[in-house]
Prior knowledge:
- By secondary structure, the protein is mainly α.
- The protein is 39% helix and 7% strand.
- It has helices spanning 32-46, 71-76, 104-117, 119-125, 138-149, 168-174, 178-187, 191-197, and strands at 81-84, 126-131, 154-156.
- Helix 5 (138-149) links the parallel strand 2 (126-131) and strand 3.
- It is globular and about 50 Å long.
Amino acid sequence: EVTDECNLSCKYCSYGDLYSNQDERNRGKQEFNNVKILIDYLISLWKSYRNISFNNTINIGFFGGEPLVNMNYLVENDVHLLISIDGSKQNNIYRVKKEGKESFDIVFANIKKLKDNHPNYFDSNVNFNSVLHDKNSVDQIYSYIKTNFDKTPYISELNRNGIAEDKKEEFNRMFHSKEDSIKQAVNCGSSYLKEIAD
């Protein structure tokens, strides 16, 4: 985690008040020396007899903060991005800023700017992740991201672990099954999901 000073306060975030097992957010930034210690340790394991991996490619993911504020660095260093957006503005209602205001317009503008200014980088290095909940559906997510960005998103369900006892009813209202949402879209004749299945 590069920083716990995220500029958002998503209602379903694992560090939010729906969950009781999160650690405290102290607005800290990750220091290079901590990352170096971890990577040096991992390299020693990768080079040891314990490494039984048949894949020589190692991927390390960093998350936290708003990566799009430093677009030129990302492009120049061939960094792969996984951008989180839950579909349209109406679908994105749970992704809010710290003061509770919607974040969609800012995020969408930054994505469009990145796509317009660096189209080759966008095509090769940018993917999308969406969270499924009661304000969207698999069909809405797929069709919105495909139409606006010509990408196929990863879709995740809400995290079911560590839900606070007093938030279970709220969680159950927000939670939607990915499998059920796909079945519903197929039954309703979703042209986009039919295209994926074919």
